[in-house]
Amino acid sequence: MATAPGADESDIWQHEPDEVVEGKYRLVRPLGRGGMAEVWLAAHVHLKTELAVKFLSVTLTGDPERSRTILERFRFEAQISARLSARTRHIVAVYDAGVHDDIPYLVMEYVKGRTLFAEVTEKGPIDPLRFADLLEQIADALTVAHELGIVHRDLKPSNVMIFEDPDGAPAVKVADFGIAKATRGNLGLDRPQETDAHIMLGSPNYMSPEQLTSPLEVDAHSDIWALGVLAYEVLTDWPPFQGDTIAEIIIAINTREIEPATNVRRSLPRGLDGWFARALAKEPARRFASVGEMARAYRAALSTSPPAPARRPVAALAAVVVASVSTVAAASFIASRLLDAPRPAHAAARRVSPGVRHALQELASRPPSQLPSAAAAGPAAASAAAPPAAAQGSAAPPAPAAASAAASAQPRSTAPRPAGDRAAPRATATTAPRTPPPPALPRRKEIDKSEIL
After folding, report:
1. Looking at the domain assignment, is residue 47 inside a domain?
2. Whether residue 157 has pLDDT greater than 90
3. Is residue 25 part of a domain?
4. Hey, CA dihedral for 444, 445, 446, 448, is it positive or negative?
5. Domain count, the chain
6. Which SUPFAM superfamilies match (predicted)?
7. How far, in whole angstroms, is CA 382 from its chain's centroid?
């Protein structure tokens, strides 16, 4: 067990540098970890190549059913990643799997890059034309998965690796099929038993409405939703759905319309607002039919629309007033609906996990003054709703706490965004003069999927 001098528990690793796994893989240094596993850079003893070794880091004792499920999912991740990566270069390949000192492991392709989350955290929002290339590659990876009946279920910036290909062009690989769902039974793989319906799998900020309420019924449309959330976040540096708790995020996803992306980042083409509206439609049938169509529509939106003009202050203020009233009403309504609505015959598929149920009950019992406000709707809404003194340079509301290792790997840049790009705070009836753009918005960190199991 590796420990840095003076380290706390978070700096303790299961393995040691120079440890040799199964006589073939010499561990070099840790690369990162999440709620279920830790990953090490390794060198093949005989071939002298660099690889990544992923070890399960959870204790497989106490609950036999949970241990069996974890092992089945880990084995399925290895098999499906190996199958998919043979069909596309945009999925991280898995080469080997086994057990070392009673700990299951996978041997994976080592990608010399970093996550999309780390890229945006350090450099700020991605250029929309550059993202078109990345989006097409992500869509290629997901198309291969969807054609085989595989739904990723945990697509987010920290599960997309970005690097330079041999020609120096940006390239991506989709990683972590650890909670993927097989919608077909004829894959010839060790398909894991599906998790109980009352347990939601995924990262809350990126989960579709149906993934939150009907986890056994998700299909490729949930990946389309998650890709829409990812795109909004990396293009604006602002998550489309926010909340200080998981329950508030669930309320936002189920009830709140997104802030138009061009209100958050004024240099974005206006056509992207319609693109996001379709990608993040509450009803799955209203979204794009496939990730391929989604990528093509994004490219078309870039080529047919100029940057959006500044939004009129009066219209912005009116939108905030409506959002404030509707959010208070909707918060109580959706919490009550999720908790108490009559169940159909397939009611098991619409239960929520005990932890989320408790959070929703707490949210539903709050007085109106303590329910989520318009500030959670987006940066433009928060700026418009703020009093004049707070509108000038004040930071956005604090973001949810971090739990994912990938989220904490890179510090948030404090450099201000270029003037004229980030949408300025909206003027109110008493603040006619335009105010300068606010400083960089504090970026919320991702909530790891392990928090809601």
Report:
1. no
2. yes
3. no
4. negative
5. 1
6. Protein kinase-like (PK-like)
7. 22
168: phi > 0 → left, psi -120 to 50 → alpha, else beta; which?
A: left
Percentage of residues in the chain with pLDDT exceeding 70?
60
Token pair listed for 205:
């900020």
Distance, CA of 266 to CA of 127 (rounded, Å): 12
Structure tokens at 319: 């939108």
How many angstroms separate the CA atoms of 286 and 283, rounded? 6
Whole-number Å distance between alpha carbons of 316 and 435: 15
Selected catalytic residue, list 8, 63, 102, 154: 154
Record the pTM.
Answer: 0.71
Residue 39 lies in a domain: no
Q: What DSSP letter does each residue of 10-68 carry, written as one string?
A: GGEESS-TT-EETTTEEEEEEEEE-SSEEEEEEEETTT--EEEEEEE-S---S-HHHHH
* Distant-in-sequence, close-in-space partners of 52: CB < 8 Å, separation ≥ 6: 31, 39, 40, 41, 42, 107, 108, 109, 110, 111
CA 103 to chain centre: 28
Domain of 197, in residue numbers: 114-452
Clarify whether 154 is annotated catalytic.
yes
Q: Is 399 a member of any domain?
A: yes
- CATH number, domain with residue 407: 1.10.510.10
The answer to whether residues 25 and 51 touch, using CB atoms and an 8 Å cutoff, is yes
Tokens representing residue 197 in the block? 């319906």
Among 34-48, 66-80, 115-129, 310-324, the range with the most confident prediction by mean pLDDT is 115-129
Residue range 287-338, pLDDT digits in tens:
999 999 999 999 999 987 666 555 544 444 444 444 444 444 444 545 554 5
Q: How far is it, in rounded angstroms, from Cα 437 to Cα 435?
A: 7
CA 277 from chain centre, in angstroms, equals 18
Distance of CA 310 to the CA centre of its chain: 29
On whether 48 is known to bind a ligand per the annotation, the reply is no
Each residue's pLDDT tens digit, 353-368: 444 555 555 666 666 5
What are phi and psi for residue 293, nearest 5 degrees? -60, -40
Q: Residue 423's closest CA among 434, 412, 443, 438?
A: 438
346's CB contacts (< 8 A; 6+ apart) are none
